[in-house]
Structures are given as C-alpha cells and as structure tokens.
Amino acid sequence: MTNFDDEEADDPRHPEEHIAPVPRISVQAFCETEQTLKAVTAAGEDRRLAKAHLTAKDGGLAAAIEVYESMPTPNVIVIESDGTRDILEGLDDLAGVCDPGTRVVVIGNPNDTAPYRELVRRGVNDYVVGPVETLDVVRSICSLFSASEAIITGRVIAVVGAKGGVGASTVAHNVAWTIARDLALDSVVIDLDLAFGTASLDYNQDPVQGIANAVLSQDRPDTALLERLLAKCTDRLSLLAAPAALDRVYDFGAEAFDAVFDTLRMTTPCIVLDVPHQWSGWTRRALVNADDIVIVAEPDLANLRNTKNMLTVLKAARPNDRPPLYCLNQVGMHKRAEIEVKAFAKTMESQPIAVIPFDSKLFSTAANNGQMIAEVSKTHRTTLLFQNMANRLAGRGEVKKPKRSLLEPLLKKLKGRSGRASAPHRKAS
Fold it and tell me: Are the C-beta atoms of residues 69 and 97 closer than 8 Å to each other?
C-alpha cells in the first residue's frame, strides 16, 4: 500500500474549507482601490458565483449612495472603505436609500476605528479587513446565504476516470459507502452513466426509478420528487441510480443536471458523482462545479496523457479551488509494463491521493456479490486506502494505522509461553 500527502492541499491559497455556491442573486460592488476592483471582478468568474450577476465599480460608499438614490438596491452590496471617511456616518446615509432585505458586505481598512458591534447595528452582514483577495470576496458573499438561510449545503465530490475501464466507478462507490458508514454522513451517490451505469449492481439494488426520471422530468425536480427516486442502500447512503438501458439515447445540455444537484445540496451533506468517461458540456460542468474532483487512472501512457490534460484544464477553470486530485488504480498488475508511480507523479507535478494495488480476486468477489471492499475484507490494505480517501475528501484528514510497538513481537512470544505453561494445570484441575 502506498499513500501520499498532496502537497498542494496544504497550499493556503487552496484551503480545504467548503464554500457553498450562491443562488441566483445580483451583487454590486463599489471599490476604492484597484486591487479590490480586480479581486471582485475575478470573484465574478468563480464557479460558486456562477449564478450571481456581479458588477464592480469605482467610488466606494459615496458612489453607492448616489446610485441608489434613484434605483433599487440589489440582493447584495459590497462596499469598500478607504478609511478617509467616517464609515458609520456613511452607512447611515446608505441605510436611507437601501431596500429592505438587501445584504451589505463592508471591505474595511486597518485605519477604521468603528467597532464591529456598531457595524452590525447598522445592518452590515459581514466585515472583511482589506486588502482582500478573490477567495475572500467569494467566501464573504457565499457565507451570507449558506449561514443565514440555515440550510445544509452539501459537499459535492466528482469521481471520473482518465480512461474507460480504470475502475473509477468502483472507487466512487467505495468512497461514498465509507463516508456514510465511517463518518456517519448522510450521502447520495448519483450514477451519471445513464446507459451503462453499475452503481445499482455494486450496491445490490434494483431500483425502478432513478436519475433519468429526475433529469427528464418536465417540472423542476424538488426534494419530494428526489426522495421518491432515491434507493436506500444503508441507513445513511442512498443511490440515484442510472437506468443502464439502451432503449433511448441520452443527449443533454450543459445545465441539464444543475437542478438535481442544487436540490440535493439543500438536504444532503455529501453527494458523490460517478461521472462517466466522456468529455461533453454537462460532464465538464459537473466536474468544474464540484467541490472536489478525483481522477482515477491506471499507470500507463494513455492514462498519463489524459490525466495531465484533465488536470490542466480543470485547474485553469477553478483558479480559487483546491487543485483536482487523482489516484492510481490497479497498480502492480502481473506481466503488465507500467509507468512507475514516481514518474507518473513527476509528470503530474503532484502526488496521487492514493495508490490502489491490483487484486483481481478481491475486486471481482466484491463486484459479483454486490458488496464493497470493506464488506469482503475489513482488514485489507485497500480498505484502509478507501478510508483515507473518504476522510480526505470529507475534510477530516487521514486515518493513521496505530503505531506498532517495538516490544509487540516479544510480548506475543511471552504470552504464548505462559499459555503453554498453564495448560497442564488446567488439565489437572
């Protein structure tokens, strides 16, 4: 078993915090400095603000007050204070032209002397000390809705193969099952391979309905509909299964699954997407909008090229997120020429989240019985790998094996000797 720490995961620019996306809102920002203007503009391109209509202007508080004297206010106003004007006086003037329900974020200056309590009394929903970066702006706006609405904002984990047949679905299903069982998080697996999905087989389920019914519904899928479509696998794990039938062709637009994902986010702490190996508008969108991405690859040249390409594209599309992760699967297959793990990692410029060894008997037994790896063998080293991946992806850290004492072999020998020495006495009695 080999497991690596992802060096990029500890990069302070890509924290492991979970920032939930915002609904369809309007945001207007009034900035005093060029740095803040650039940060707010870049935030408008972030995936978590994809549904927001964000505009950024110069002028700060004075400009905001002038604008809103003659027009309604948006859902969110972001105001930057440069410290040259009394911020409390300016907020009082802004309150006079602000519509009820508008939320206000203030980007302050270290020279501001107003206490936070006074800012709150004047209706400020969040206060951030400048200078700010893009992620600070994203975090502040998103927190207004995830916290104030008191709803669950589920974490979405997308698992995809760098090539067909690399075992990405097996990894996705085992990780989801482990998150539900070991971390006690209510979880949903969505099998997005509508024609050839295997999630129902892996979980030994035979649901009549599933993801196709949700995405093809003429009405927007709501919580009640999805509850009816979910198949219960365990107490905490549910499945939105694929029909795995060829009676129709499944062609979707880029936003086809958005409503399903958004609805599940409101009720489910963890959502695992089993994404098929294809590159289309909706698969790319599902990957880009996920909170974490895991690319599953085998150690050969085609997987090396595809993994590198996917990492490059997805990193560029998610500049404010933790970089996508990848794991190597079926490593050490007998009589197969493989790229060494070190060479693979050097090309990726990052370490794999896990290296899963090839074990045909273990995996085929689990697949044919409709079981997870931990159900076949609780103590197998691959079971620990899935536990580590589950903890990492759920933001819980890595599971460590208890350290073995240097005296353990000696204690076992002494215990064995004492057992043999006491046997005749038990017999005599």
Answer: yes
